[in-house]
Amino acid sequence: MNFVRLIIVALFLSLPGEFAQAQPAKDYQPAVGQEGKDVIWVPTPQALVDKMLDLAKVTPKDYVIDLGSGDGRTVITAAKRGAHALGIEYNPDMVEISKRNAAKEGVSDHASFVKADLFESDFSQAQVISMFLLSSINLKLRPKILELKPGTRIVSNTFDMGEWKPDESATIPGCNSWCTAHLWIVPAKVEGNWKLPKGELALKQSFQMISGTLTNGNAVAPIDGKLNGERISFTAGNASYTGRVNGDSIDGAVGGTKWSASRAGK
Ligand SMILES: C[S@@+](CC[C@H](N)C(=O)[O-])C[C@H]1O[C@@H](n2cnc3c(N)ncnc32)[C@H](O)[C@@H]1O
To answer: CA 123, 124, 125, 130: dihedral to nearest 10 degrees?
Structure first.
């Protein structure tokens, strides 16, 4: 019996890498710049964490997910604002540190952490996603992000999303490194043809930007506009249209008069 136990212990001690990582050391000290799975660990300065959560307008109603959560600071800050927040972090030692930090700050009930690969994680339930990754990783995540519920807010420390330009950016004055936060709001999908009671709207969409034409009889007006989640606004000729997209219909107002549209062919 003792011999069997000895073999089990010997086997356990000889297991390298992944399995050994499942037992994080209590005295683990992270080092800025240490290797991570897809990106090294560098913590976001607290002033920028605050700015990112300000840009995303985080409230207690939000569920915030930080992709690659490091020592947990963004998750903990969101939890202090009353939001529920989750950190997804590949390094199990960092996950343990984050849990301890959350406990120290008294927000363990609102801040959770999982050891997982962000590329294999479901973050579809988040209202806010924060990241400090790399532009190349943001670009890999972009198709999945664009499938999220319209209105989901994405904030990134410094790194961009290629041709998907931020809806807003903010820079910390007098800051030396990691000073800029970007915000994107997942736009509703509106590309295609829409029928109005009188006329037709033909929309082209590039991320949150829209163009196209509004046709009424022989009159064709070019349109130019923008989406903010489900909210749509555009000008056609001299008229300014605003509205809310709800799947296959749009309801809104133009010059104090209601207008509506439904997807053509439905
Ligand atoms: C630049 S740090 C940002 C940490 C934290 N979000 C912050 O702003 O302070 C990136 C973090 O992502 C983690 N990471 C790298 N690749 C990952 C992956 N595939 N899945 C989950 N976490 C990952 C790293 O271990 C590191 O902690």
So the answer is: 50
